[in-house]
Amino acid sequence: GREGRNIRALEAATGIEIIVDDTPESIVLSSFDPIRREVARLALHQLVTDGRIHPARIEEVVGRTKQQLEEEILETGKKTAIDLGIHGLHREILRLVGKMRYRSSYGQNLLQHSREVAKLCAVMASELGLNVKLAKRAGLLHDIGKVPDEEIEIPHAIYGMKLAERYKENPEVVNAIGAHHDEVEMTSLISPIVQVCDAISGARPGARREVAESYIKRIKKLESLAAEERGVVKTYAIQAGRELRVIVGSDKVTDKEIEELSFNIAKKIEEEMTYPGQVKITVIREVRAVHYAK
Fold first, then answer.
1. What is the distance between the terminal CA atoms of the chain, rounded to a whole angstrom?
2. Mean per-residue pLDDT for 155-165?
3. CB 119 within 8 A of CB 139
4. Are the C-beta atoms of residues 77 and 90 closer than 8 Å to each other?
5. Which class would CATH give 210-286?
6. b/e sequence 144-165, b meaning 16+ C-beta within 10 Å
7. I need a labelling partner for 206 at 20 to 30 A (CA). Which of 61, 117, 144, 171 fits?
């Protein structure tokens, strides 16, 4: 359009930034909101296919695309619940589940991750003789706080817990959502199951995209930061860098000092490193006595 008026009209209608550079036959749609990006992508595809592009037409197509996407999101939520055999979810919760399809974390699709967690929770709850339906429900909903309709200033687990409370979910499900990153205290056996299954799904090989070089660098940095502390003999980063095991010499560090050492290492990691999720620091002080019978 003249002086880029069509691009400006599409940006205003969708709330995203359109970047047209020298790359042939490609346009970059930039936005932190995955739903807005999808609306812009679908609308732009329809406009280019149709060929009639002017500000009034852009507004009409974007409005229709938003409505279609909302219906598709709700349908995705309903289909997911039916596939997993989860019944009685509030319409708004189903919509949030559908929104997960357009969100990813380190390259892992959020809806796929939540479905995995739900299935793992069901298996684990069955083995432990717990309520399988509740565990599966909590597994599916544990990350609904990651798809808010507005900007939030609180952790996603707490926000998800508040949403579940608002839509009258079972208290055990509510607690499992809020406690899966240890932001609230666990009050039922479903909660640790959700936490464990969330970690299994996120940490399995191939689940999340991370450049091998930066991953190795982060693991080495974790181990070296802890190794700098007095009395540390060995350090091991395990579970893809989610936990750090620190072995200290029993002759250099007392039982009273290991608590402080664990805290100091945690603070140092927080201040000097960037990492996904959280890192658990376990300090181990062991005394061994060895004799040989001859």
1. 94
2. 90
3. yes
4. no
5. alpha beta
6. bbbbeeeeeeeebbbbbbbbbe
7. 144
Distance CA 19, CA 7 (A): 9
- Tell whether the model's pLDDT for residue 221 goes beyond 60: yes
Distance separating alpha carbons of residues 82 and 214, to the nearest angstrom: 40
**8 Å CB contact between 143 and 114:** yes
Helix pair angle (110-128, 190-203), 10° resolution: 130
Which tens digits make up the pLDDT trace of 86-98? Answer: 998 899 999 999 9
Two structure tokens written together for 27:
């346009």
pLDDT tens figures, 78-88: 999 999 899 98
Among the four given CATH numbers 1.10.287.130, 1.20.140.10, 3.40.109.10, 1.10.3210.10, the one describing domain 85-203: 1.10.3210.10
**Given this structure, which CATH class describes domain 2-70?**
alpha beta
Residue bearing tokens 């892992």: 108
CB atoms under 10 Å from CB of 204, counted, come to: 12
> Could you tell me which of 199, 59, 195 has the C-alpha nearest to residue 135?
195
Predicted TM-score of the model (pTM)? 0.66
Radius of gyration of the chain (CA): 24
